Amino acid sequence: MLQAEQLTKRFGAHLALDHLDLDIRSGEVYCLLGSNGAGKSTTINIFLGFLPATSGRALIDGLEVSVNNHATRNMVAYIPEVVNLYPTLTGLENLAFFSGLSGYAYSRAELRSFTQTAGLQDAALDQRVGGYSKGMRQKVGIAIALAKQAKALFLDEPTSGLDPHASNEFAQVITRLSSQGVSTLMATHDLLMAKNLGHRIGIMHQGRLQQELHSEAVSYAELTDCYLTTVNQSV
Amino acid sequence: MIQLLLKKELTELLRTTKVTWLLVGLAALLGLALYNGYAYSTTRSQFLRESQHITYQQFISQGDKNPHLGAHFGFYAYKPTADLALVDNGLEDYTGNSFYLEPHQRGVVKFREVSDATGLRSFGFLNAGYFAQFILPLFIFLLTHNVFAKEWENGTIKMVLSTRVQARQLFTGKLLACGLVVGAVVATLALGALGLLLVQRGAAGLGPVLLTYGCYVVGLTMYAVLLTVLGVAVSLLARSSALALVVLAGFWLVGVFLVPRLAGELSRQVYPSITAVEFDDQTFREKEYGMGNEGTKDHRRALLEQRTLAKYHVKRLEDLPVFYIPITIEYFEETDGLVMDRAYAAVERNEARQNAFVLTSAVLSPFLAFRDFSLHLTATDINTHNDFAQQAEAHRRRVGRVVDAFYQKHTVASNDFWKTVPQFAYSAPGLGWRLHNAVAPLVILLVWLVAAGGMAVWAYRRLTA
């Protein structure tokens, strides 16, 4: 579903992404671990078409992003660390707006079903987003992804700053979407979340994919050890 | 898609507290501007109409007098309030409104409104024209400065661009939303002024000015469009509300305050005006000694005497069948008139050069171009003022000829004669003349519109990149 072929990105002399190869299947959750500047967000930005690759290709469902950006954007949803919404609009209005931009016009009841699935309380629907907590914004972000009927999710540090309960709720939704065939590429610093949620885990450093692990094949302690070893060896 | 974007933008704008307060403040200023324009033009129009009637009635009721002394009693020619002074009173306050019609000397336009006004007048007079020229641009810039920049600052741009929306649709939606709000303000201004014109002039009186007013509104719309496009483009390029606001507010300050003052000062340096002392000295010398080789006044007086005696085939002035004094009065009225015409034409040419210089600086300030356009369309410009002064002077000479012709045969004039002296009535030139004067500022506004469009295209390409 998501493929990176020798994906490379340079910012001047700085090599942000170095010949990355990825192949993420439908329904698979792939977690990218790495310290700041490892290339995780750059990878996501190239898949979303926000950044052009210097060389190599990013493909979504077989379509090359740089060539078919409009078509590939129809298939994906993006949830950043902080889901940025319009503060003067209500949660429901934000959801209606973003799903509308994706070509879907839903009734209030349909929109409500997405927010319920995402775990957002009904009482919050008609409140302006300016008063939402970070967790509530994340839930609206998930509802947007559901409403867009996205085939692939790009998550950039989505649980950073969330309390354990909200983080757990978030993981449950991603797992549910995964079971429905939605592929997920998640950049995170949260090793435990990566271990529990991801099918595969990639450890990046200095723009290179250094390690790739199956989460079922490693314990949390082994993952932590592997992560620290990889990062420290490369310094 | 654009409808969706438009709806969201408008909802967002109208729910933003600062925009709400901005609109409330703007509505108050607009109401005050319309009221001021209406009250000013109505009061002034009535005052000038009554004054013209009174001064003429006094003249034609002066009783039995020597015709020439009666002519010296004189009367005022008042410049009626411009037909669209309700919209923009332009230079009316500074140019004066009356011209004294008296033998021998061309009058100087008197009674400038500012001479009776308080110091607060130096801030300008708030009417529809002032609102459109200076306040509307500031409102447009405050409205548009963050229309794109906030998307980057809030981080929503990534959420938006991860949907199927195209950059073209996003740009159009935002531009249309700002355009609708600005359009509502412009429409309120235009319809408000139109309603007051109807109240002031009645349905029959509105007809003659309707087309001119329509042209003014077209120019105003073009001005508002170019400023809106410019504001949106800057917001897109700056990607920071603070930077966009600084750029747009700076542009407004430079365009409204710096460029006009600098251009005015420079125009006086490049084309210095003749001083009143120099003007009087020059015209006195030319009247006394002639403009060319026609000789001194005494020499010309002697020649006139010879010509008159020859014309009537007599040898002494006492033998003339007509009074000789009015003949000399009429003769020197004409020759002195030529001196004054030439001197005033030189002053007007210099004024025109200064104005052209100032207008050229409008390539740096669309506010200046629109102001010039507004003055011409509402006939409150220097061209109309000079036209009034010329017509008043022509009327002064006409009165002189009528009186002198009578004086050649009669030494006493009664009210029956004074009533035959024509009243002065001025009407400003029509739309064709005004549009002709407004061509240059209109072209500059068009250039600004094209430039703003070009900047928007450039900004849009950066968005797509």
Automatic annotation (TrEMBL), chain A:
Residues 2-231 form the ABC transporter domain. PROSITE patterns: ABC_TRANSPORTER_1, ABC_TRANSPORTER_2. GO terms for molecular function: ATP binding; ATP hydrolysis activity. InterPro entries: AAA+_ATPase (IPR003593), ABC_transporter-like_ATP-bd (IPR003439), ABC_transporter-like_CS (IPR017871), ABC_Transporter_VariousFunc (IPR051782), P-loop_NTPase (IPR027417). Pfam families: ABC_tran. Keywords: ATP-binding, Nucleotide-binding, Transport. Coiled coil: none annotated. PANTHER family: ABC TRANSPORTER ATP-BINDING PROTEIN ALBC-RELATED. This is ABC-2 type transport system ATP-binding protein. The lineage of its organism: Bacteria, Pseudomonadati, Bacteroidota, Cytophagia, Cytophagales.
UniProtKB/TrEMBL annotation, chain B:
PANTHER family: ABC TRANSPORTER PERMEASE, ABC TRANSPORTER PERMEASE PROTEIN NOSY-RELATED. This is ABC-2 type transport system permease protein. The lineage of its organism: Bacteria, Pseudomonadati, Bacteroidota, Cytophagia, Cytophagales. It comes from the Bacteria. GO terms for molecular function: ABC-type transporter activity. Keywords: Membrane, Transmembrane, Transmembrane helix. One of its GO terms (cellular component) is plasma membrane. It comes from Hymenobacter mucosus. It holds the Pfam family ABC2_membrane_2. The chain crosses the membrane at residues 21-40, 130-149, 170-198, 210-236, 243-263, 438-460.
